[in-house]
Amino acid sequence: MTGVGNWQAGDRLAPIVFFAVTLAGGAAFAAGDACVADPAAVAAAKPYAAVTALLPDAMAARLDAAVTAVLGETAAPGVIAGVQTPEGHWEKAYGLADPETGAPMEIGMHTRIGSVTKTFTGTVLMQLVEAGKVSLDDTIGSYIADIPNGDQITLRQLADMTSGLASYTLSDAFQDRLFSHPDRVIPVDELLKYGLDDSPIFAPGARFDYSNTNTVLLGEVIEKVTGKPVGEVFKEQIFQPLGLDNTFWPGTSSEIPAPYPQGFTMQGNDATPDAPTNATHWNPSWGWTAGGMISSLDDLLTYGHALGTGQGLLDPETQAVRLASFPSPSGYGIAMGCVGGWVGHSGELPGYNTTVFYDTTSDTTVVVQTNSDIPSGDCGDAAVLAGNATDMVCSSPATRVFKALAEALGHPYAMP
């Protein structure tokens, strides 16, 4: 796939492991166009007052109808969706958390958020820049030895995916390692070796290539500069300041805090179109700072607003730099993407798919969680469910629901 969707792990017979990020395609912006029209104004926006009011009934009905209309097109047993605006909020759960028992999906359930984790890593990076502890122009070689082109690759290039370092998730050896024993811990140094052994794939800054190796290296930098485990840094610098009591760094644990839905995937060695694999307790260590986190709807709505505005996380000047970091044509800046003024990230870990986006034109945050990462539509060679309809654009489940909500809100998410 090009433009929007999933950066996949190459062609192979075994199912593919990937993280997803939704970006602007090459045709979406001409050179010089700004995805965020006025970064300084967005960064200077006033914080929300305590949002306890519900959105008006007419808007709530429109949002509910938008989700309901696409539920049959998503390959997920259950969906949790939420919208927050300055006027109020709307939240609803759909479908099943556990098809075997019939347990319903419920607001407040915890899910793995995959590559949304990258935005946390990028936020801490910008906090370190703001504190004068690192510079985006520092080379990765000044922190970590033996990186191909390490004396040229900057922290900015790691954050905006232009480093030229191969993603470890594209490695056949990595996939064999993961899928043969998905319950086992994979150490960070082993993850990096899979990616660095295949690097470089192009000169630093030459082009965009979505690589999980980049964000794992940024995690290593964070630990080296702060002298603390990265999970502790996330807690001190993001979770606690924003009051994210239901957001977790699992480290090497396979557990998910209750309540949580069962998560289903077509990845792995045993999945079939009629019987996807339950990946709920696959070990997430291999995602690390590129994709390991767990969260809930309300926490992600709070975080999505802070991610877009910087409020509670970064000074306005620093946030404005981040909101101006989206180059054409990729639309991917400092650890987050931008499409037509929507800034944020989507994420997939086997069994779960999440979108967290903030509309810089209307001060609106939209979050979708699903308990499946299985795409649907005209998805080429990607593994899909039996009975998959090919008369629609391929999409992961959370992205399909997010697109419907964005249209209902009056600011369509324009998938190229």
What do these coordinates show?
This protein is an alpha+beta fold and 416 residues long. The protein has one domain: 3-Layer(aba) Sandwich (Beta-lactamase). It is built from twelve helices and 13 strands. The chain has helices at residues 39-43, 57-71, 116-130, 155-159, 172-180, 188-196, 212-226, 230-242, 288-291, 297-309, 316-323, 397-408, and strands spanning 5-7, 19-21, 78-85, 88-98, 103-104, 111-112, 264-265, 277-278, 294-295, 337-339, 342-349, 352-359, 364-370. A seven-stranded antiparallel beta sheet has the order 5-4-3-13-12-11-10, sandwiched between helices. Residues 1-32 have low confidence and may be disordered.
Q: What does the radius of gyration come to?
A: 20 Å
**Strand percentage:** 5-15%
Helix content: 25-40%
Give the count of helical stretches: 12
Unreliable segments (pLDDT under 50, ≥5 consecutive)? 1-32
Largest sheet: 7 strands, antiparallel
Number of domains: 1
Short description:
This protein has 416 residues and is α+β, with helices and mostly antiparallel strands.
Task: For the structure shown, list the relevant keywords.
single chain, 7-stranded antiparallel β-sheet, two-stranded antiparallel sheet, 13 strands, 12 helices, disordered N terminus, alpha+beta, 416 residues, Beta-lactamase
